[in-house]
From TrEMBL:
GO terms for cellular component: nucleolus. The chain crosses the membrane at residues 12-29. Residues 88-166 form the RRM domain. It comes from the Eukaryota. Coiled coil: none annotated. It is found in: Nucleus, Nucleolus. It holds the Pfam family RRM_1. SUPFAM superfamilies: RNA-binding domain, RBD. It comes from Rhynchospora pubera. One of its GO terms (molecular function) is RNA binding. Keywords: Membrane, Nucleus, RNA-binding, Transmembrane, Transmembrane helix. This is MKI67 FHA domain-interacting nucleolar phosphoprotein-like.
Length: 251
């Protein structure tokens, strides 16, 4: 038919109805037909199925109108609008050494007003963990920075910048943001621990641990076949505590 249109609802319904109705009869006729007639029927069935697939494909086009099988007015598929961006917090990873709070604020304030900034640091040493968070006052500025500055090469490090949705921002994220961390002097801590005054029981426990390590060392030297006499440790034998007795006689 020259007036046939793929967008019309009738050909698809008619084709599917026709195929479903004649399929039982085809099985009966197929037994009585010759080889040539069977080939011709297979070709016609293939053409009908190809026509049906073309009609379905035309309806799945995003610009085509949705037409129900029962007829009726067409409806266009409404595409969902993009959600409004409200994220102002950015996650920044792969921060290089030397790019700290002061340098980071001076670098990112060229895009907009920086509200808060925090770099994750070790509580004991105060060293950077090479990731942090940055907050802008304007969500549009935050989106531009996330899109344009992601994978930006800085001091041989590719910055990883991503938007953090408002519902995923932890309430304690900005706790202690302006507090400076003083690194712990581990050398001083070890010195105090070594030079502290010990009781007699603590001193004996320390000596026993030293003797135990020395005995293991002697065994390893002997097993290695080395003829060596290790010197005795000084202070191996500790004097017992003296007991003071008071006499009953009084002058």
């Amino acid at each position: 038919n020259p007036d046939f249109s793929l967008s019309a609802p009738f050909p698809l319904f008619a084709t599917s109805l026709l195929l479903s109705c004649i399929s039982p009869f085809l099985l009966i006729i197929n037994k009585k037909m010759g080889a040539k007639e069977k080939k011709a029927m297979k070709k016609s069935l293939k053409k009908a199925s190809a026509l049906q697939k073309a009609i379905v494909a035309s309806r799945e086009d995003k610009d085509a109108e949705f037409l129900p099988l029962e007829g009726g007015p067409g409806k266009k598929i409404v595409e969902s609008a993009e959600p409004v961006n409200k994220s102002t917090v950015l996650y920044i990873g792969h921060i290089p050494h030397g790019f700290y709070e002061e340098q980071m604020e001076g670098f990112f304030k060229q895009f907009g007003t920086v509200k808060r900034l925090r770099i994750a640091r070790n509580r004991k040493t105060g060293k950077s963990k090479h990731y942090g968070f940055l907050e802008f006052t304007n969500p549009e500025v935050a989106k531009v920075v996330a899109d344009e500055m992601n994978n930006y090469l800085l001091f041989e490090h590719n910055l990883q910048i991503q938007l953090v949705p408002p519902e995923k921002v932890h309430p304690k994220l900005w706790k202690g943001v302006n507090r400076s961390i003083e690194p712990v002097n581990l050398v001083e801590v070890a010195r105090r621990r070594h030079n502290k005054e010990r009781t007699l029981q603590e001193h004996q426990k320390m000596v026993q641990a030293i003797l135990k390590r020395d005995e293991k060392r002697r065994k390893r030297i002997k097993e290695a076949g080395i003829d060596y006499e290790c010197p005795e440790l000084v202070g191996k034998i500790q004097p017992k505590a003296k007991k003071i007795k008071f006499s009953d006689d009084q002058d």
